[in-house]
């Protein structure tokens, strides 16, 4: 058998990307080929093909064949042409499956005849999806191949692929993710990792008796978090609506109704800035457990993340895209916000620390903040003095009461609430509360939020009478947690948020 190593198409030389004019020229050439195919009665986009196999399955069945082997086994499969070389009586191509696995195909005069070989040479381009049927063999160098007996175009590509030997720039990766998935293994790995992680989360919830529900994304009242909403208008109801910023208030209604362990994985929308850890549209997990508290939610969250890491990497040690190893194993630290801030700042800071002293400390370290709540200063000071030193996954416990309107006050520490934020890789990954279930106190907190909103705070919550009515019917003591799915993938892969979202929002 003749052997070859597939090489890039001559029209797209190594290291050189085609210009806009060259791409336009190639597009016209391919459109002309499509017309000639149709004129010859060849379907450029057939509705069905007699596929019996896949590239990964064939490779799995034949992992270690000796060179120059004819197996006698026949396979009929399809893939995208990513490399091609044409010679006189024999053409070589490499087909790629969606998972990135590849197989060489050989189209020889002896097997397919003059007409079919000529058609291959005339019609097949890089990027085309091609169906082939033939014997599974190995070349003289041991490369697993299909000796083609028959073939067909499965889908004609009108635009050429980018140069497979050049890295795609970030702009192309996020705007044309389909190209990223075709040419870059890390992009495919990230999609698979996300699917494995989400499946693992659902398994953990199922193991703990949680039910998955769906709550409204269009809401008449935004709430459940401090964030600026997107607004829209319903023609059917002739009313202003909001894209949800959090599912919290509806999930709590479910707990009131007796769904005592409930969770949702779905989209949130916040009309705010976008950076390496924030996206206006993002996937969110929230869960609530009746008769639980924030300590139990910390245990559950650690278990979920460690199980997701094991689902992806086989252990609690994950390897990021840059090769760095990060250990998510063991018991994670639980750190008091006020105590750790006091130790790092060298001065005792408590919920009773006067606003003037907090402002003085902020000014001394050049923190620019103008906010009526002392708790905002405490959180900003904590981020300045403590956050950067966190390496291992850490639960930061017991936040200021005035910045947490939906959280129960601490059972033994006045001026604090039973809330934690989980920091992994230096960013906030998850948060949890011992939930505020007293409808009288909740109303007071909502009124305080409404005052902030009236004063111009676009992130403040509104007074939600429908939620308060549900709460007045009695909600059991509960723990609740929320975690960004995109950020979970950041922690597990070391990538930025625009890489972990398959199709991120771009201008």
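^ structure tokens above, recovered residues below v
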């Amino acid at each position: 058998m003749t052997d070859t190593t597939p090489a890039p198409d001559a029209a797209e030389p190594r290291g050189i990307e085609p210009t806009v004019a060259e791409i336009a020229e190639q597009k016209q050439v391919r459109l002309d080929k499509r017309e000639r195919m149709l004129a010859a009665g060849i379907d450029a986009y057939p509705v069905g093909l007699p596929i019996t196999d896949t590239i990964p399955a064939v490779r799995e069945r034949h992992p270690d064949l000796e060179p120059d082997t004819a197996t006698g086994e026949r396979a009929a499969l399809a893939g995208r042409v990513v490399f091609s070389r044409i010679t006189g009586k024999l053409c070589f191509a490499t087909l790629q499956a969606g998972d990135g696995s590849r197989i060489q195909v050989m189209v020889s005069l002896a097997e397919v005849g003059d007409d079919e070989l000529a058609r291959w040479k005339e019609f097949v381009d890089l990027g085309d999806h091609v169906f082939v049927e033939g014997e599974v063999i190995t070349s003289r160098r041991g490369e697993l191949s299909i000796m083609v007996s028959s073939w067909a175009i499965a889908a004609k590509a009108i635009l050429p692929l980018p140069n497979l030997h050049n890295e795609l720039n970030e702009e192309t990766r996020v705007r044309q993710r389909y190209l990223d998935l075709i040419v870059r293994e890390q992009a495919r790995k990230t999609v698979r990792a996300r699917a494995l992680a989400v499946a693992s989360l659902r398994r953990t919830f199922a193991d703990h008796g949680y039910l998955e529900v769906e709550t409204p994304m269009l809401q008449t009242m935004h709430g459940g978090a401090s964030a600026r909403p997107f607004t829209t208008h319903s023609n059917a109801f002739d009313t202003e609506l909001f894209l949800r910023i959090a599912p919290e208030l509806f999930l709590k209604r479910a707990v009131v109704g007796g769904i005592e362990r409930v969770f949702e994985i779905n989209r949130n929308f916040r009309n705010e800035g976008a950076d390496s850890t924030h996206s206006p549209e993002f996937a969110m997990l929230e869960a609530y457990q009746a008769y639980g508290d924030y300590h139990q939610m910390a245990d559950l969250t650690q278990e979920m993340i460690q199980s997701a890491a094991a689902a992806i990497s086989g252990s609690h040690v994950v390897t990021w895209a840059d090769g760095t190893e990060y250990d998510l194993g063991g018991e994670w630290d639980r750190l008091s916000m006020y105590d750790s801030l006091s130790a790092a700042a060298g001065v005792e800071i408590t919920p009773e620390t006067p606003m003037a002293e907090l402002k003085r400390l902020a000014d001394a370290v050049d923190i620019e903040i103008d906010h009526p709540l002392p708790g905002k200063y405490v959180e900003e000071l904590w981020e300045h003095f403590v956050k950067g030193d966190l390496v291992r996954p850490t639960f930061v416990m017991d936040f200021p009461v005035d910045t947490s309107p939906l959280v129960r006050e601490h059972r033994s520490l006045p001026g604090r609430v039973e809330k934690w934020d989980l920091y992994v890789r230096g960013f906030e990954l998850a948060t949890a509360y011992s939930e505020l279930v007293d409808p009288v106190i909740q109303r007071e907190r909502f009124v305080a939020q409404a005052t902030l909103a009236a004063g111009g705070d676009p992130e403040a919550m509104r007074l939600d009478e429908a939620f308060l009515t549900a709460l007045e019917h009695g909600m059991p003591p509960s723990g609740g947690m929320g975690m960004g799915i995109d950020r979970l993938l950041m922690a597990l892969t070391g990538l930025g948020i625009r890489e972990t979202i398959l199709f991120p929002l771009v201008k």
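The chain has two domains: 20-155, 183-332+392-500.
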